[in-house]
Amino acid sequence: MTITPIPGEPGRYHVQATSLSGQYIVDLADWDFLGSCNCHDHAIRIAPFLSRGETPERTECKHLKAVKDQYLSECLKCPATRKNLVSAFLRADLETRNAT
Ligand SMILES: [Zn+2]
């Protein structure tokens, strides 16, 4: 999977799964930050649910998931961001455990 940031467009990436596959555009900010992709999978299996305000079975195609994985890895390299992210995850986990 080749992921290339689109110059001048923060949060948007060109994604190419293989050298023979098409190139897609992933936007991390779309759909209230769930993200979007212009591939067939996202257009057919995910976007229609989101546009009706429903929750699809999954919210990521393989291109969007690859960008998010890479983005998270980059974010976790920064100590301050890592502390904020992990703290937020821990708080959410604690609230989930307390709610059950
Ligand atoms: Zn896709």
**Secondary-structure element sequence?**
EEEHEHHH
The total of helices stands at 4
Spatial strand sequence of the major β-sheet = 1-2-3-4
Helix content: 40-55%
Mean pLDDT: 94
Total beta strands: 4
Oligomer: single chain
Terminus-to-terminus distance: 39 Å
Biggest sheet architecture = 4 strands, antiparallel
Determine Rg (CA atoms, Å): 16 Å
Which regions contain 5 or more consecutive residues with pLDDT less than 50?
none
What does this structure look like?
The chain has 100 residues and is α+β, with helices and mostly antiparallel strands. The protein has four helices and four strands; from the N terminus they run βββαβααα. The protein has helices at 30-33, 40-51, 62-76, 79-99; strands spanning 2-5, 12-16, 23-27, 36-37. A hairpin with a 6-residue loop joins strand 2 (12-16) and strand 3. The longest helix has 21 residues, at 79-99. The structure holds zinc ion (ZN).
Describe how the helices and strands are arranged.
Elements: E1 2-5, E2 12-16, E3 23-27, H1 30-33, E4 36-37, H2 40-51, H3 62-76, H4 79-99
Antiparallel strand pairs: 1-2, 2-3, 3-4
Bound molecules: zinc ion.
